[in-house]
Specification:
globular
Length: about 160
């Protein structure tokens, strides 16, 4: 199946998770399952998830690309250390939210919804004012996927 066809399916998961999760918090567990799946997949296929299956990436390609200023991505975003700083910030915030939330199934699910919403809002802002896939350059999960894929590459 070609990339655009897959994206036309995957793009619907983003509003399902965000809007569905605002009304039914356990929808956030879809985010958790996707994260697990793509981290395992990245060991075998690198950042394949990012380029073909990511619902946010699909939204950025299919929808936000129409509104983007299409400017050059800042060189700072391309620096490995900067991507790891973004990773550390998001993971720290995620851990903080998990540590401070009431430990119930819906509340924990909502933390995943919140993280998805927060990162999507950042992705939209970057996508409009810079380039549609700017978020993908600094995405914490993409950064981790790239590292996991590189580990496999070194073993071969």
């Amino acid at each position: 199946m070609e990339k655009k066809s897959v994206q036309k399916i995957m793009v619907w998961f983003l509003p399902l998770i965000i809007f569905g999760g605002l009304f039914y918090a356990p929808m956030g567990y879809l985010v958790f399952l996707m994260m697990l799946f793509f981290l395992v997949l990245s060991y075998f296929r690198g950042r394949l998830w990012c380029s073909r299956f990511c619902p946010r990436g699909s939204f950025l390609d299919l929808v936000l690309s129409q509104a983007s200023f299409k400017r050059q991505v800042p060189r700072l975003f391309l620096k490995k250390w900067f991507r790891w700083v973004i990773f550390a910030f998001f993971i720290s915030f995620f851990i903080f939210r998990l540590a401070t939330v009431e430990k119930t199934f819906p509340k924990i699910g909502f933390v995943f919804v919140q993280m998805c919403l927060l990162s999507t809002l950042v992705a939209i802002a970057l996508g409009i004012f810079i380039r549609e896939r700017t978020w993908c350059v600094i995405c914490p999960m993409g950064t981790l996927q790239g590292k996991i894929g590189a580990i496999r590459g070194k073993k071969e």
